[in-house]
Amino acid sequence: MAQSPITTRCDDFAAWYQDVVLQGDLAEPAEIVKGCMVIKPNGYAIWELLQHELDTRFKATGHKNMYFPLLIPESFLKKEAEHVEGFSPELAVVTIAGGKKLEEPYVIRPTSETIIGHFFAKWIQSWRDLPMLVNQWANVIRWELRTRMFLRTTEFLWQEGHTAHATHEEANEVVLRMLDVYADVAENVMAMPVIKGMKTQSEKFAGALRSYSIEAMMQNGLALQAGTSHDLGQNFGKAFDVQFQSKEGQLEYVWQTSWGVSTRLIGGLIMTHSDDKGLVLPPKLAPIKAVLVPIYRKDEEKAAVLEAAHRIAKEIGAKVDDRDGQSPGAKFFHWERRGVPVVLELGPRDLASGKIVLKRRDTGTKEPVDQSEVGAKLAAALDDMQKGLYNRAKDRMKANTVLANSLDEVESILKDVSAEKGGGKFVMAHIKDDPACDARLKEFKATVRNIPLVDEYDGPGKCIVTGEPVDRRAVIAKSY
Amino acid sequence: MAQSPITTRCDDFAAWYQDVVLQGDLAEPAEIVKGCMVIKPNGYAIWELLQHELDTRFKATGHKNMYFPLLIPESFLKKEAEHVEGFSPELAVVTIAGGKKLEEPYVIRPTSETIIGHFFAKWIQSWRDLPMLVNQWANVIRWELRTRMFLRTTEFLWQEGHTAHATHEEANEVVLRMLDVYADVAENVMAMPVIKGMKTQSEKFAGALRSYSIEAMMQNGLALQAGTSHDLGQNFGKAFDVQFQSKEGQLEYVWQTSWGVSTRLIGGLIMTHSDDKGLVLPPKLAPIKAVLVPIYRKDEEKAAVLEAAHRIAKEIGAKVDDRDGQSPGAKFFHWERRGVPVVLELGPRDLASGKIVLKRRDTGTKEPVDQSEVGAKLAAALDDMQKGLYNRAKDRMKANTVLANSLDEVESILKDVSAEKGGGKFVMAHIKDDPACDARLKEFKATVRNIPLVDEYDGPGKCIVTGEPVDRRAVIAKSY
């Protein structure tokens, strides 16, 4: 496996992505379970790091983890009209259990608003019970037709936050706070720049009043919706009769939010940073930050090199690759494909001169450094790499973002773009938040990704479809 | 909820257990999904601590986390005859997905030996690929008729380790090593003494050659199987054609193991330590180790008490319960039912005398200590409590373990025991590992829990059923 070549990004971006995943040993398709994958140790370790970063922030913003049942009575989904319409086509249904046909089937959760709504109704009576701030780490199933590892799989791992509030204003604060948390993790941990914005009505979550997203640009110029945060209004409150007595003694429906990110983030991470040699990981999400490869030809060199290798590696927290029967070249190749940020080389000549060679995965630069300084140099390299990857991605997004002032212009920019060929752009254009306008973009397979919360362009303008005045430009792109 | 009384253990142990769970706000039944529960923040936080303790040990013993699909093709289960026979009655089956009837139904994993066997066959070719050491944190479903929160629920959270080896000897080492890991966490983290032993052939895991367990004694004298570790032999290797080329060039089937513990551990934790006032947690598994309750009557006392409370709490890592509108008594009650190990009281008189009152949840003792020493005293109290809870449970197990030398004797000791009434014993008796002997115990609803790995009794003797010579006494008990 490790010896197969990786398709280049230019040749076929989609094939490149698959090669990077497989040869980084992150995951593999579970062809016997439609659209599912096995997440392998290298991939799962990244997920664990992401979980830790997210979970710490969820707890710091007052959310508590709970666990709700995987199975949801089928009738629950039907209680919210838009919700069932959106999710029905994607459901996996349990009809037999314990050897018997069930009277009422269960669906495997595609998301948990409905079952959590049911429990919120039991737990919330008074304004004193609010806000209720819950998070769940879980697996969900959505029966997708076209799947790609990490980006869209039938089963995926995610977290789903669910909150209930006394006022719409307070709910909205949480919606935007959690969007900020997601943007913080995306930018400062994943080194993946994102645009925070509002989804159009036709792209919102099924059952929400409003949805917000963070959108990232992949190296092929396609957009990836990397996280969403929803203002559910009182829709689920009414569907599940979640009422509370207000301070003023009135019976009112709660205002709810929900927000989620998933293992899809790992797909975004790969498509933001990796190169034609394979996986590139930002240091903050690298399960192994540095590997030391000892080099020796003769047996009499081995003991001294290995002793120094282990001593230095211990000091700086690196892993020593002392596998026998593998050449140094094979080892470099191995760690390169796995995206290890820094590989250190230590040979007999380095030993004599008190040096060690530090090689960066992102830039490919090799630098001999004093052994006495390697700890500081490694820390500096990791720090520089984290920043460098972010800046490179940010520059790329900037370079591939263009303005357009007519539908024709948008179409001509995006018409030949595909996940395979790349060439994608973020097209900033004025377009009205109206399903009829979204529909026009569908003609050439683009969508409004979101309407940015912060306008970095030229303010109001005329809708490219209707000519009506629009507040600011939206991001239009092809996407995953 | 918090004001309801807790049934005493003497009155009805099963009702007491349910009260402790509900009033500790650990979980509640999800009556709309058969046999499921919602794990609430107080319960989930204990699970997170347990996960951390276990996961650290799994990684230290060389295992890597992966994630396999929730759904398993129905035909997979049928490949191992004993396995399908054991699990068939408990399966939940997905027959419809994406709006269509499936050609082959999927079952929701009751355990993952089969799907992991499928992938092991893909990944393992040579002895160089061995050992393969995998762990998965996941939810599973087993359609149980009688359920009890944490102890037996239709869906539960667990970890399942799966390993493959070149030799039976090496597989067996892992089986016993992971049993040791489980015993270590049970005894040194949960403060729950356990007996490590081998299950009889009729009690082993469906598809295993041999199963081992740790068995704990609950306060009603019933046994709880708290963790299992299985020697799967070559059964799944043969069923899924997991073959490897040995060093000698032969094609051989791998030897596999699997081992798991679940949210059931939380049930064991509760039934080992809690009392008639509610939950008692060993400090190592207490999400909140100490709460400081500030006491003041007059408004002019409030500021000084709160200032000191927050200052001291910050120093020692305690939580301040500064909720308005709750009396100190209500606060003590609240934290008592939630099993917080130490509650500190700080009032105006304490402020004047430089003291603070430290109250232990386990013993109920209250001790005024110098504020300057409270950090050290708290640490000492937590340490003493961790040890004390273990010793108390160990003494209880010893006191309720009896020897018997005939089937009549075993029956007369166990006949009136029940989960509600208690009175259970561990009866140590010589009994042959033969399904016919196990069957005799079923007559009075007891089972051989395990045959201890270490004989702490009188060595060989005659089987109480057949009279044949038996190596050592086994643990016979009623159980959950």
Strand order of the largest sheet of chain A: 3-7-8-14-11-10-9-22-25-21-20
- What is the CATH T-level topology of the largest domain in chain A? BirA Bifunctional Protein, domain 2
Tell me the span between the first and last alpha carbons of chain A. Answer: 27 Å
Largest interface: A-B, 51 and 51 residues
% residues in beta strands of chain A = 25-35%
Helix/strand/pairing category of chain A: alpha+beta
Q: What is the tally of beta strands of chain A? A: 25
CATH hierarchy: architecture of the largest domain in chain A:
2-Layer Sandwich
What's the assembly state of these chains?
homodimer
Can you give keywords for this protein?
homodimer; 480 residues; alpha+beta; BirA Bifunctional Protein, domain 2; Rossmann fold; Translation Initiation Factor IF3; 3 domains; eleven-stranded mixed β-sheet; five-stranded mixed β-sheet
Which helices and strands, and how do they pair?
Two copies of one chain form a homodimer.
Chain A: H1 13-23, E1 27-30, E2 36-39, H2 41-60, E3 64-65, E4 71-73, H3 74-77, H4 81-87, E5 92-97, E6 100-108, H5 113-123, E7 132-141, E8 155-165, H6 168-188, E9 195-198, E10 210-217, E11 223-233, H7 235-239, E12 243-245, E13 251-253, E14 255-262, H8 264-273, E15 290-294, H9 299-316, E16 319-320, H10 328-337, E17 342-346, H11 348-353, E18 355-360, E19 366-370, H12 374-399, E20 401-403, H13 407-414, E21 426-430, H14 435-442, E22 447-452, E23 461-462, E24 469-470, E25 473-477
Parallel strand pairs in A: 3-7, 15-16, 15-17, 20-21
Antiparallel strand pairs in A: 1-2, 4-6, 5-6, 7-8, 8-14, 9-10, 9-22, 10-11, 11-14, 12-13, 17-18, 18-19, 21-25, 22-25, 23-24
Helix pairs in contact in A: 2-6
